[in-house]
Every structure is written in structure tokens, then in C-alpha cells.
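Below is the record:
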Amino acid sequence: MMMMMMMMMMMMMMMMMMMMMMMMMMMTTTTTMMMMMIMLMLLLTMTMMMMMMMMMMMMMMMMMMMMMMMMMMMMMMMMMMMMMMMMMMMMMIMMIK
């Protein structure tokens, strides 16, 4: 779970960095206004896409978390049951002895 979160964060960071780099490159290379305008548009679109991606990621994370929680609960229940069974068995053995 945590690992997944970390991975997502890393991906986000990488994306951001890449975007920044691209921006810098564009800034340094371009001189005309047209290029700048196009770049800005691209940036806007990119940001929008990023937002969408973030939202999707968040949703996915939530879903994952829920799933994990459910799984954990199930596991815990199973463990408890097992423990109970073991205890019962022990008791039975003791009684017999």
C-alpha cells in the first residue's frame, strides 16, 4: 500500500520535473511569440491532463485502500477463528488427558 503510494508520488514528481525541463528548454530555445503561445497552450492542456490523472490516481488509491482494509479485516477474522479453533483443540486435548 505504502509502496504504491510512494510509487505514485514518484511518478507525479517525475512528471512535474519533466514538464519543468520542457518549459525551460522551450524558454531558452524559442524567440518568437507564436512558439510561446503554443507552449502556453500545451502547458495548460498538460496541467489539465495532470489534474485528471491525479484525480484518477486518487480514486484508484482510495479503491486500493478500501480493498486492502477489507482484506486485512478478513485476514484478522480468519486468524481469530484459527486461534479459537486451536484453543478449542487444546482444551479438548487437555480434557482427554
The chain has a mean pLDDT of 68. The CA atoms of residues 33 and 69 lie 53 Å apart. The longest helix spans residues 33-96.
